[in-house]
Design goal:
The chain is mainly alpha-helical and 136 residues long. It has one domain. It has four helices and no strands.
Length: 136
C-alpha cells in the first residue's frame, strides 16, 4: 500500500509539473504574438487567439490562416477544436500518440479551411450565395 501511495504522489507531481509547463508554453505563445488584430478579437475568442497567433507563426501558416479568422464562425469552430486537441496532445501523461493525432487533425483542419476560403472567394467573385455545402 505504501508503494501505491508513493506512485500516486509521483504521478501527481508529474502531472502538476506538466500543467505548469503547458501554462508557460501558452503564456509564451500569447506574449510572442505580434498580431495587432488580437486586440480587436471578440472576447469569446481571446483564449484561442493567442494560441492561433502562435500556431500561425510556429507552423508558418500565415498564408493559410488569415488574420481575419475570428470573422469566420466556421474557422473559429475549427481552430477552437484544434486548440482542444493540441491541449490534449501535450497534457497527456506518459508516452502517447496524441501529438501525432494533433498533427493529423491540423492537416485536416487546414484542408477544410482552404476549401472554405476557396468557396468564399468564388462567392465574392460571382456574387452567389455561400452555404456550408459549397465548401464540400
Amino acid at each position: 500500500m505504501a508503494a501505491l501511495a508513493v506512485t500516486v504522489d509521483a504521478l501527481t507531481a508529474a502531472v502538476d509539473a506538466h500543467d505548469r509547463r503547458l501554462r508557460r508554453v501558452e503564456r509564451t505563445a500569447v506574449r510572442r504574438s505580434a498580431s495587432p488584430r488580437r486586440r480587436n478579437t471578440p472576447r469569446r475568442h481571446r483564449p484561442v487567439a493567442g494560441w492561433v497567433d502562435w500556431l500561425r507563426s510556429s507552423y508558418r501558416l500565415t498564408d493559410r490562416l488569415p488574420e481575419s479568422w475570428p470573422d469566420d464562425p466556421m474557422v473559429v469552430a475549427e481552430l477552437t477544436a484544434l486548440h482542444t486537441a493540441w491541449q490534449a496532445a501535450y497534457t497527456s501523461p506518459g508516452p502517447s500518440l496524441e501529438p501525432v493525432h494533433f498533427h493529423d487533425a491540423l492537416g485536416r483542419v487546414l484542408s477544410r479551411v482552404d476549401e472554405w476560403r476557396t468557396a468564399w472567394t468564388r462567392r465574392r467573385v460571382t456574387g452567389g450565395a455561400l452555404h456550408a455545402r459549397d465548401a464540400l
